[in-house]
Amino acid sequence: MKRKWQLWLAIVLFVVGIGLISLEPIKTMLVATYRPTITRQAVEHNQAQAKRADYNMNQVKAVTMNQVINARLHAKNVKLVGQMLVPSVGLHLPIGLGVDNETLMLAAGTMRADQKMGQGNYALAGHHMINKQALFSPLYVKGKVGMKVYLTDMHKVYEYQITQRKIISPYAVQVVDNTKQALITLITCNDSGSKRLLLRGKLVHTTSIKHAPAAVIKQLHQKTNNYNVLAGY
Predict the structure, then answer these.
(1) Between 2.40.260.10, 2.40.50.140, 3.40.50.2300, 2.170.130.10, what CATH number should domain 34-220 receive?
(2) Could you give the residue numbers annotated as active site?
(3) What is the pLDDT of residue 70?
(4) What pTM value is reported for the model?
């Protein structure tokens, strides 16, 4: 009887172990399949709903496996309004309205309802992950003054150049305020989460998407770096 009980225990532990081993690839695949098609028509439709989005940074939760999977299962709730690309650090993300948890688990999020690419202060928030290649993590690790940031609303491509990098207090909310000058403001957490990294740049060039550099267009059609956001969790 004792030997039989030990056999059943061994079988149960084996099955659980196999489940835990296979779970990580399943989680990764679930999130990796988020490859939304972003069209000009969809962007225009979603942008008209900007006032309905959630811009309360105080309600943003830390990344967990359940949060990411929940976001992926409800990805239709993410209102996409464009893409962002930072070639020098390997960042390419869809841009969604607001900073609700579903949006930030899968994309960069706009921080004000009145934001328009190429006008005023276009502020974006993103998560700093354990995986240093996911979401906004490349900005914290490799982001520097002088690098180029490209935004597109699928109508035009807006080229910004970063002019400032600094660590700020999470209470320095004025950095999100609108400005007369055309700027980009990128916000993410530091490693401990107690501070924020600010990257700010100025608009240097605007062109129609048809006449944008071929290298930029090619990268906009490639995989986004919200892949494998669960690595390490």
Answers:
(1) 2.40.260.10
(2) 127, 189
(3) 83
(4) 0.86
